[in-house]
Design a protein that fits this description.
two-stranded antiparallel sheet; 10 strands; SH3 type barrels; binds zinc ion
């Protein structure tokens, strides 16, 4: 048996970047879409705008003399989000494509492409 399957999401390298639009595919926020605010490369987690909100109890301080509840995004594991494809209008798995002559000084440029429709989803 020689099966060579290399899912792009399990290469150990994050291919989701800040400001990408992603769709959540697992957990209580399943189906939600949002913009990536931050990528935490060390833990393999991403912070998605208005997604996976958690309430933090704040003690009164100078900025907030009343104290109280603060809602804040909590990071999701990157394997629980998919990059949005504007053409498919859904979260998709993506692959990589090398475009010759599109990089700096005519070098090769690696781009991310939708696996369904092959639309280029950015670098
Ligand atoms: Zn697509």
């Amino acid at each position: 048996m020689t099966t060579t399957t290399t899912p792009s999401l399990n290469t150990g390298k994050l291919s989701i970047r800040k400001n990408d639009m992603v769709q959540v595919i697992a957990g209580r926020e399943k189906g939600k879409t949002g913009r990536v605010l931050k990528v935490l490369a060390k833990t393999g987690r991403v912070l998605v705008e208005k997604t996976n909100m958690v309430k933090r109890h704040m003690k009164p301080n100078q900025q907030n003399p009343q104290g109280g509840l603060l809602e804040k995004e909590s990071a999701l594991h990157y394997s629980n989000v998919l990059l949005m494809c504007p053409k498919c209008n859904r979260g998709v798995r993506h692959g990589h494509k090398v475009e010759a002559g599109k990089g700096k000084k005519g070098s090769e440029k690696k781009v991310r492409v939708c696996k369904r429709c092959e639309t280029v989803l950015g670098e």
